[in-house]
Structure formats: structure tokens, C-alpha cells
Amino acid sequence: MKRLVAILLVAGATFLSMHSTASAETKSYVSLRAGTALPEFTRDDVATSGKATALVGFTFGIQPSDLFRWDVFDFSYFSGAQSSPSGFPSLPTEYADGFGYSNMNIGTGMRWGYFGEDWKIHPYVSFGVSANRSMYEEGMSRASEWYFEWNIGGGVEYQIIENFAIGLRYKYSDTDFKRFAVAEEAHKISAEIILMVFE
């Protein structure tokens, strides 16, 4: 929880300082995402993939220049991933149905690319950090706690009209989740709509 508070305080302070000194070219945007998450779990040095599950999310951000976007507040959630029991030989027989996992993510991130209006297609790379609320359930045992996460990825947007675009993005995320000797990482693929709301 302390990491979450620290991340939000730093993001808020940075946003206020940048917003107060931003040039007239600074734009604000919101985006909505929907897609799939492909979690991967490691237990006792044995890796297995969870089932693909639905992912949803949204972002509020600013664009100080045509080369940079800051996702000031970024939220995403996925749930329902179940391990393949045969993937973990050490999984006790009473957990033959595997385990449940859900993930709520609150953070901030940056996108580097070219977002100028003279281009219709905008490719970019991204990096972010966040607080990750992970819930892991094995039989009658359940653990839910905040963890630190970092992510890296990229995407491409297509500008339909002046203030509206659609996009496709990919994120690889890794957390310090370590419950029941299980580590988690994920591949996230989503479609996105982006609306510039203030210039």
C-alpha cells in the first residue's frame, strides 16, 4: 500500500508541475482499452501458462509534445486465469482444479513515438510502473496484497479524425508477486480508443 501511495503522490505532483508550466500545445486525452491477458506463472522453478482472460482498462494522460505522451493515471483489470494443474508437478492433489488469479493495476506510464497530426499512423514504445493488487486462490487458501509492477511494450494508433484515434497495444508486465512460492508475469494485448479532450 505504501508503494501505491508513493506512486500516486509522485504522479500527482509531477502532473501539477507539468500542467502549470505546459505550453499552449499541451493536449489532454482519455483512452479506453479492452483485450486479453496471458498470465504466466512459475512455481518451484517450473513455469506454466494460465488461461487467456479478458482485460479492461482506461487512461487519463497529457501530451506535452508530438514526441511524448504521459499516461498520468492508468488502470487495468483482469480476472479468472486458472493454471493447468499438470503444469505444476508439486501442486498438491487437493488443488487438482488449479488455482484462481486476478489482477488490478493502478499506475503511470510513458509513450515515446510520433503523435503529430500530419501523420495518420502513430507507432510508439512504452514503459510504466504501477501498484498491482493481486489475488491468488489455492483451494481454501487466499492471498490478496499490493505489489510493485513494471511494464514495457509498444503499440500503434490510427488517427481517424482530428481528436479521435484507435489503436492496438502490447504490454509485458512483471511483478514482485511471491505468494505460495508462485511468481507471476503477463502478456497483455488490447484494442484502444483515444479521445483528445483538451488543447
Summarize the topology:
Blueprint: H1 2-21, E1 27-43, E2 46-49, E3 53-65, E4 68-82, E5 100-113, E6 121-138, E7 141-161, E8 164-175, E9 182-198
Antiparallel strand pairs: 1-2, 1-3, 1-9, 3-4, 4-5, 5-6, 6-7, 7-8, 8-9
Concise account of the structure shown:
This protein has 199 residues and is mainly β. It has one helix at residues 2-21; strands spanning 27-43, 46-49, 53-65, 68-82, 100-113, 121-138, 141-161, 164-175, 182-198.
Defining traits:
9 strands; 199 residues; mainly beta; 8-stranded antiparallel β-barrel; 1 helix
How does this model look, in words?
The chain is mainly beta. It is 10% helix and 66% strand. It has an 8-stranded antiparallel beta barrel with strand order 1-3-4-5-6-7-8-9. Strand 5 (100-113) and strand 6 (121-138) form a beta hairpin. The radius of gyration is 19 Å and the shape is elongated. Mean pLDDT is 80; it is low at 19-24.
